[in-house]
Design brief:
about 450 residues, alpha/beta, 14 helices, about 35% helix, globular, binds 2-acetamido-2-deoxy-beta-D-glucopyranose, binds zinc ion
Amino acid sequence: MHIKAFLILLATCYQSAISLNAGNGTQKDLSPLLLVSFDGFRADYLKNYSFPNLQKFFSDGVHIEHLTNVFITKTFPNHYSLATGLYAESHGILASRMYDPSTKKVFSIQNDSDPFWWNEATPIWVSVEEQGYKSAAAMWPGTDLMIQNHTPTYFLKYDYKVSFRERLGNITKWLTEDESVKFATLYWEEPDHTGHTFGPENTTEMRKALKEVDENIGLLMQQLNETGLWGRINVIITSDHGMVQCSQDRLIKLDQCINRSSYTVVDLTPVGAIIPLSEPSALYKNLSKCHPHMKAYLKNDIPDKLHYRNNERIQPIILVADEGWTIVQQGNLPRLGDHGYDNSLRSMHPFLAAHGPAFRKGYRMESINSVDLYPLMCHILGISEKPNNGSYSHIRCALVSEKCTDLAVVVGIVIGVFIVLTTITFLFRLMKNRELSPSRPFARLELQEDDDDDPLLE
Ligand SMILES: *[C@@H]1O[C@H](CO)[C@@H](O)[C@H](O)[C@H]1NC(C)=O
Ligand SMILES: *[C@@H]1O[C@H](CO)[C@@H](O)[C@H](O)[C@H]1NC(C)=O
Ligand SMILES: *[C@@H]1O[C@H](CO)[C@@H](O)[C@H](O)[C@H]1NC(C)=O
Ligand SMILES: *[C@@H]1O[C@H](CO)[C@@H](O)[C@H](O)[C@H]1NC(C)=O
Ligand SMILES: CC(=O)N[C@H]1CO[C@H](CO)[C@@H](O)[C@@H]1O
Ligand SMILES: [Zn+2]
């Protein structure tokens, strides 16, 4: 008994020593974490095209079929949600084009470097730096500018002309040359670019683009292998949003409903951000009956489920086009494929795959919320979470360190046990009935015979 108590005490001390160590920036053997995004990788591309390298990657790791991402389903808001675990209204990067009414500042993805836009949240690379580790980044949105007075220790200035191979080369160099780099992130523009240009229903062009994406994943695995990182690094491959086909006959033309002199456009499609220049109610009334495939909301009436209301930078009127519809003022279709629509649409969802010592092998999950990734990454790195909208419990079963039993297995076992018990009970009753029923009249007699046979009575 004493020995048992001693062992329990020993185990407790050992465990707390581990958890103390995990939070310390000097921990040498903590596995680094690499987060990779292939922009606009719709979840179901995985079902409809071939990805030999990606398949190999998650056959030995984790595959989460689709991520419910955040509204609006655009690149910058969603990359910042992956890095902060926050909805757009809480991290402040609300769209590709923003206007701040109190400072009159304007944000666009070409002019994004003012920390003002980003400082409402703390992305994971900043927490990593504050914890005493180093981080490295190759063009993940927001990593080439100051956020709360930090950039990653190593980063590349955004330049779409830099090849995937070069971005990857820089990342693996930083990871191997400096052991205190514990978090790295890598961004690539495809298949988003091809999806916009040709539309996701152009299977010829998509097949070409997705083949290249898979080759890049192959290159990633190969380089990590050659540098000795493969197997001891945790790698997450994911994306920000999906893509849907647009067309010239699914246009919503604002000029047919409202006068250009009555409003300013901050952002247009598929989510419009409109500032009325006079009384909003008349403008709102015209917009709300403008087109059956477009919804108009006054800021206060934006549905809760979108988590897109509580921020100064959300404009007084928001327009949301239905899946595949495009809002223009007048004129032609700007893009054959687009995203940004309601985040409950399957076509807007990306996927996630993970591989490394922290992850289970050959594990599949149906879905998580994209904001759940942030608490998972904090857990893997042993750094403390900032307040966020994600939930570690949704995704913890992807980790080897968690004791989880597959729900299907549990249900299977329960049903199995139930069937066995029922069968046994049934058989038992049947046998009992067979033995007892015909012999009932003689039961007394048998008992007497038994009594006679009892050696103790002799
Ligand atoms: C970029 O945005 C800032 C405000 O955030 C603004 O002052 C500046 O004029 C903009 N630059 C360009 C080239 O638009
Ligand atoms: C990234 O790698 C290239 C070589 O592929 C090198 O020329 C460049 O200097 C590296 N950039 C940084 C910032 O280290
Ligand atoms: C796909 O795009 C190519 C290049 O624009 C074009 O030639 C081809 O007709 C398109 N295919 C479909 C099915 O739209
Ligand atoms: C999201 O998280 C932030 C930070 O904790 C919190 O302020 C906000 O209320 C949360 N949003 C929702 C909808 O719970
Ligand atoms: C026990 C231990 O390793 N403590 C270290 C934790 O990290 C700080 C610097 O961040 C060191 O000063 C401690 O020695
Ligand atoms: Zn895009």
